[in-house]
Design a protein that fits this description.
single chain; alpha+beta; Glucose Oxidase, domain 1; 2 domains; seven-stranded mixed barrel; 7 helices; about 20% strand; binds 2-acetamido-2-deoxy-beta-D-glucopyranose
């Protein structure tokens, strides 16, 4: 036998062996795992000694949900479980797409854009990935044109993460939705569109727009279909300054929003 044929045969035999050993076991609870005392998962906020900062929130039932007092609630269900004799555990998920750390596509507030297919699959990964500035916003106001002026964000800056009072108030860690969160007022959004090169706008609660200017601010940002809105970021304890941001939405065809994983790299 030639070496390649021998290799392929060996592969086939091995996979057959795996399949038959799976089928033999009626209730396979585990395969060759370490002893139970080592089974403590590590959950991290930073990786690589602090070089990679996770700025996405963990999805859990008690995280806030838009205009709800009860939080997100259960969002995964075990459809097949090993305890019930399945070969593996398989969960299903049901979650509003604008939950937790997420992205808005132009179809979110423009019906024509929605119908034309401007969904999250059409968002530009070149905007969602690259150098980004993390700035602190004055804590006593919503983000108005006046506030935007005082931030002095230089021309050429394409991605900005705005940290607000929402982070200090730990609103994303509170189950109850809070309408008093800080966000962009319409004139602040307009000022950004007219006077800066910002194409990625990141904020630290569920909406970039203040509740009082919810739709007007979204319309201003999304009309040109160039600006991408990332909401519900976890910016706690991160130094202001320049980072490399990396945000990746799911390719949900026809969806105007998606959960998004965002990290900063120093
Ligand atoms: C599989 O699901 C069962 C519940 O039926 C759970 O107790 C067990 O921990 C799960 N196993 C794994 C490997 O996730
Ligand atoms: C196992 O199956 C029973 C009976 O169909 C069902 O009531 C139970 O919820 C299942 N458990 C899991 C963890 O899937
Ligand atoms: C921001 O606007 C909301 C209404 O959308 C208001 O409840 C809140 O008090 C404002 N926050 C600040 C810091 O002015």
């Amino acid at each position: 036998m030639k070496p390649l044929q021998a290799f392929l045969l060996a592969c086939a035999v091995t996979s057959l062996a795996i399949v038959s050993s799976l089928a033999d076991v009626a209730y396979p609870s585990h395969y060759d795992i370490e002893s139970a005392e080592n089974l403590v998962p590590v959950r991290r906020e930073v990786y690589g000694g602090g070089r990679i900062i996770d700025i996405s929130h963990r999805y859990h039932p008690d995280m806030p949900s838009w205009e709800s007092t009860d939080g997100v609630g259960q969002f995964t269900w075990l459809q097949k479980s090993m305890k019930n004799g399945s070969l593996a555990n398989n969960s299903e998920m049901r979650l509003p797409v604008h939950t937790g750390t997420h992205v808005d596509a132009p179809g979110h507030v423009f019906d024509d854009y929605f119908d034309a297919g401007f969904d999250v699959d059409t968002l530009d990964l070149d905007v969602l990935n690259g150098p980004a500035l993390l700035v602190d916003v004055p804590r006593d106001k919503n983000i108005t044109a006046e506030v935007m002026k005082t931030l002095h964000i230089p021309h050429g800056v394409k991605r900005v993460l705005f940290r607000t009072l929402n982070t200090d108030r730990r609103l994303m860690f509170k189950k109850e939705f809070d309408t008093t969160y800080v966000g962009f007022m319409k004139d602040g959004a307009q000022w950004l569109v007219d006077n800066t090169d910002i194409k990625l706008v990141g904020v630290d609660y569920l909406s970039v727009a203040a509740y009082a200017d919810l739709i007007p601010s979204h319309l201003v940002f999304l009309k040109g279909r160039e600006i991408i809105l990332v909401e519900g970021l976890k910016l706690d304890g991160v130094q202001p300054g320049i980072y490399s941001v990396h945000c990746l939405p799911l390719r949900l065809l026809g969806s105007e929003g998606s959960p998004i994983r965002c990290i900063l790299i120093k």
